[in-house]
Amino acid sequence: MANGLYNADGIFQPFSSAELSTELATRQNAGVFLGDLDGWLITLPDPDPVLRKRGDEAAILRDLSADDQVTTAMLARKNRVLNCPHFSFRAGAQEGDTPTPEAEDVHRRFMLDLERTNLRNIISGMLDAPFYGFTPLELVWRFADDWWHLIDIVPRPYHWFRFDSRNNPVFVGDYGVFCADPRPLPPGKFVFVSHHATYDNPYGLRLLSRCLWPVSFKRGGLTFYAKFVERHGLPWVIGEAPAQATALEKQNMARGLARMVQDAVSVVPHGANVKLEGAGQTQGALHESFLARQDRAISKVLMGQTLTVETDGKNNSLAATEAHKDVADDLADADKSMVADAWNELAWLYTQVNAGPGVLAPLAAYEEPEDLKAQAELGKTLREMGARFTREYFTGRFGLKDGEFTLEDEAATPQEAGASFAAPTSGRSARVTDAGRSESGQPPRLTQSAARGAARKVTTTAEKAQGALDAAIVKMLPKALKASGAFVTEVENAIHQAKSLDDLQDALVELLAPSLSPGALEDFLACAMTAAAGHGAAAVEAEAEGNAD
Q1: What confidence tens digit (pLDDT) does each residue in 10-44 have?
Q2: How many CA atoms lie within 13 Å of 396's alpha carbon, on the beta-carbon side?
């Protein structure tokens, strides 16, 4: 059966495998001439429009970093990625599968080799690609124990490399375009980090070349501005000579005023008038605005916006700040993807050199942690829509431990029974949850604070009830505390000296806090105050019955 495609009109169009496997739109077929009669290899000219218009080589871009605004913008963009702590490697595996032992071994060896390198400097070199178009990384290998170890990864100067007619990088050194014999790069020796490279422009998009004119204007403007300040920053000394003054007297007076600028001392003829005039501020403000315009242009080219680099006091609303931050975040995400792609290519090359094509290479990625606040808002919305969650939802989605929470529909444990109370609501029982509300949706009728408020109305005057309360307190104390007779005596004294339940609770907290964990202390106080309320009520009831008798 012949291979082919059916056109829209239904006509079958056959094709051959040779046609599909060969390139058609190439420079050679397009008539682009890159060689001469001697057959010398001529590298591709740099298609950067700014460099071509100025007739400069890419090496001049290094000088732009001397500008303060360029340096600030470059560091601000690079640091957004360098300071991100969520970069990691993992063993390669198909999606949903576990890594093979061979992939785990390659990942382990790769991590051991990277321990001897400075990852921050390497990533910083990778992040130079947006500014210079690309960054060449030379890999330094050493063979030992039947394994090619990666000793170092060195970012090399970008202007030492060019591209041939097939977009393959070649080494030209410092000769640049004048190199007569470019050297092809050996396999497995270099990894290139490119910024928006295309077939027509393998050199990548150089952001610094777009800053050439703003920096040039700044430098020329600063020179003119410095002359302006020097010339017009000092006040002008204007002398009014008398009407009958001769030309010689006017000349002598002008010389004296000129010397006055240097030493502030001058002698003028009788009847002459001297005054100081300052230059207007309009010219100075014009130059300041001109220089600020170039700084904003540099910030927009390198950072995509201006507010994260400079603050000029205008348009600094919250909405504008958020919009500019979003642009900076987008650029940071793009730079992270560029860095991760470079590391993945490097890891793939490492695996091919050592393990062969049958083993999956380690994978690098920036894995940002989940936004727990957004997850909680989503869970709240689902809860309001009627969803019910399981323990696996809270432990897997939020990383909570089983002992850190309870669900509303779970039965209360004996420990929870001391911290929550059952109270009748609308003819049925309702259990108090951690949120402080009953399952029926009504507020609990008795909590620790409510019990303490109700206990203020109860007196504990009956001696029998007081003795029973003392025994209950001692019984509830942990074994370690009951072993100390002196401590039990302090607790009993606190009970006898307390004039109210509030005083008793404060005294117990002061005594027990250094010896109990927060959870145990809370449970003990809940049980103790419940017992105190119960014994107080029994004492009042017994006293009332005695009075009635």
Answers
A1: 888 888 878 888 888 888 888 876 654 344 457 88
A2: 5
Distances (CA, A) of 327 to 302, 305, 323: 12, 7, 7
Nearest to 260 by CA among 276, 248, 249: 276
Please tell me the predicted confidence (pLDDT) of residue 9: 86
The span from the CA of 215 to the CA of 294, in Å, is: 7
Residue 386, helix vs strand vs coil: coil
CA–CA separation, 242 vs 370, rounded Å? 85
CB-CB contact of 276 with 235 (8 Å): yes
Name the CA radius of gyration of the chain, rounded. Answer: 41
Residue 185 CB-half CA count within 13 A:
22
Residue type, 168: N
Question: What's the CA gap between 417 and 404, in Å, rounded?
Answer: 16
Is residue 450 helix, strand or coil? helix
Give the C-alpha separation, 250 to 269, whole Å. Answer: 9
Q: What gap in Å lies between CA 507 and CA 505, rounded to an integer?
A: 5
**352 pLDDT tier (thresholds 50, 70, 90):** very high
Residue 218's pLDDT is what? 84
In angstroms, the CA 209 to CA 56 distance is 10
Are the C-beta atoms of residues 158 and 126 closer than 8 Å to each other?
Answer: no
Q: State phi, psi for 8 to the nearest 5 degrees.
A: -65, -30
**Both tokens assigned to 260:** 């006055």
Name the residue among 127, 144, 138, 195 with its Cα closest to residue 161.
138
Q: In 31-67, which ranges are continuous DSSP H helix?
A: 49-54
Q: Per residue in 472-486, pLDDT tens?
A: 555 555 554 554 566
Rounded distance, CA 336 to CA 193, Å? 12
Mean pLDDT, to the nearest integer, of 425-434?
A: 38
Q: Tens digits of per-residue pLDDT, 239-293?
A: 777 767 777 777 777 777 676 665 555 656 666 666 656 555 555 676 778 788 8
Positive or negative, the CA dihedral 22, 26, 31, 32 is: negative
Q: In degrees, to the nearest 5, what angle opens at C-alpha 351 toward C-alphas 348 and 356?
A: 115
Q: Taking each helix axis from N to C terminus, what angle separates 463-476 and 485-497, rounded to the nearest 10 degrees?
A: 140
C-alpha to C-alpha distance for 261 and 256, rounded to whole angstroms: 9
> Token pair of 161, please?
């490399």
Helix (H) or strand (E) holding 273: strand 273-277
On the question of pLDDT at 337 being above 90, the answer is yes
pLDDT bin (cut points 50, 70, 90) of residue 192 is very high
- The closest of 83, 108, 79, 78 to 347, measured between CA atoms, is 108
Q: Exposed, middle or buried by CB within 10 Å (0-12, 13-18, 19+), for 72?
A: middle
Give the per-residue pLDDT at 434: 41
> What are the backbone angles phi and psi of residue 144, rounded to the nearest 5°?
-160, 140
Render pLDDT for 358-413 as a digit per residue (tens, 0 to 9): 899 999 999 877 777 888 888 888 888 888 888 888 888 887 888 788 887 665 45
